[in-house]
Amino acid sequence: MSRIGKKPIEIPQGVKIELSDKEIKVSGSKGELTEKIHPEIKIEVKDGKIFVLPKNKEFTKKGRGLWGLYRALIFNMAEGASKGFEKKLEIEGVGFKATVEEDVLVLNLGFVNPVKINKPKDINFLVEKNVITVSGSDKQKVGEIAAIIRKSKKVEPYKGKGIRYQGEKVRRKEGKKVVASK
Question: Any keyword Ribonucleoprotein (predicted)?
């Protein structure tokens, strides 16, 4: 039995749920999200709560895995439609900077040409000094774009220069040691 799948999802204030046979649509103040529903999963809305259930009483291994997965996906959709999600990244290094020009995030990271990342439809960029904030209603898209930004210049272990998530600890290495000659 899925411990996560058993938990009902509280519908946050101001979030509207539309349910059809093959799709669930969640809309709120931060945006609108849709997700296709697998045939082995059944979704019910009762008393301001969403219940995710397996369609058949006899569990298949795949059905048990999908039960918890769809509960987590729908919970994230409801959370994103009401509050939204954000990831913060820090830039560290001399001469490294980021700017937002129209719908493009421009990163100057010591390469010959600046790295340009186009803004997807439901994602917002905000740059304050050396902190880049990626925000949006879809948790998966926010995490994916933040990972792409971080990948453009990973933190190197000797001086700690590069892009990291805020609060991420980087394991530092010691440089080469000079041996004194006799």
Answer: yes
Terminal Cα distance for the chain, rounded: 71
pTM of the complete model: 0.86
Helix (H) / strand (E) containing 36: strand 32-36
To which H or E segment does residue 141 belong?
helix 139-151
Measuring CA to CA, which residue among 84, 73, 82, 90 is closest to residue 37? 73
Sign of the Cα pseudo-torsion (137, 139, 145, 150, in order): positive
Task: Give pLDDT tens digits for 155-164.
Answer: 999 998 999 9
Which alpha helices (H) appear in 41-87, and where do they start and end?
Answer: 61-82
Sequence-distant (≥ 6) Cβ neighbours of residue 91 within 8 angstroms: 97, 98, 107, 109, 130, 131, 132, 162, 163
Query: Which CATH number goes with the domain that contains 132?
Result: 3.90.930.12
What is the per-residue pLDDT across 88-133, written as a single tens digit (0 to 9) for each?
999 999 999 999 998 999 999 999 999 999 999 889 999 999 999 9
Whether residue 58 is found in the same domain as residue 93: no
Q: Which domain holds residue 41?
A: 3-82
pLDDT of residue 67: 87
